[in-house]
Specification:
- With 140 residues, the chain is an alpha+beta fold.
- The chain has two domains: 29 residues; 107 residues, Sandwich (Jelly Rolls), CATH 2.60.120.
- The strands form two sheets. It has a five-stranded antiparallel β-sheet, with no helix packed on it.
- The chain is globular and about 35 Å long.
């Protein structure tokens, strides 16, 4: 009985901790909300030179998957970056949403996986909103 109670209390504590982490974004109005169209064959670059951290919730409103990449270049500004090699950190399928975090100086790269269909997203950001935003052609 004691083990069950301890396990139940631990489970409750973990659930509360998870709820508290989740509540950071869901109970507060986003600092930035945008409808975003990523043309076929292109990648949208969000951030990269910001001084603070940010969290982004990406909702896929379109019909094509969007791959999300990042680099580990955080907190190194200008040309002294640790690495600018993008690493796949997730995929947002049509109708789905995902949350991602980026540290200071770290970009999120949203890649339209289609060469023929535009991607349609809703992007919500909490935290530093002094973010650079631009498009680049997809690299093969």
């Amino acid at each position: 009985m004691t083990r069950t109670r301890c396990a139940t209390l631990s489970l409750c504590a973990c659930t509360l901790a998870l709820a508290a982490c989740t509540a950071t974004n869901t109970n507060r109005t986003p600092d930035l909300t945008s409808g975003l169209t990523i043309p076929a064959g292109e990648t949208f670059n969000l951030g990269g030179e910001q001084r603070g951290d940010y969290n982004a919730e990406i909702t896929n409103k379109g019909s094509v998957a969007v791959e999300l990449y990042s680099t580990n270049s955080g907190q190194n500004f200008g040309e002294d970056r640790l690495s600018d090699t993008p690493v796949l950190i997730g995929t947002v399928e049509p109708g789905a949403w995902e949350r991602f975090s980026a540290g200071a100086g770290t970009p999120l790269l949203l890649k339209n996986t289609s060469d023929t269909v535009d991607a349609k997203l809703k992007v919500e950001v909490w935290g530093d909103t002094n973010l650079s935003m631009f498009y680049t052609d997809n690299e093969d």
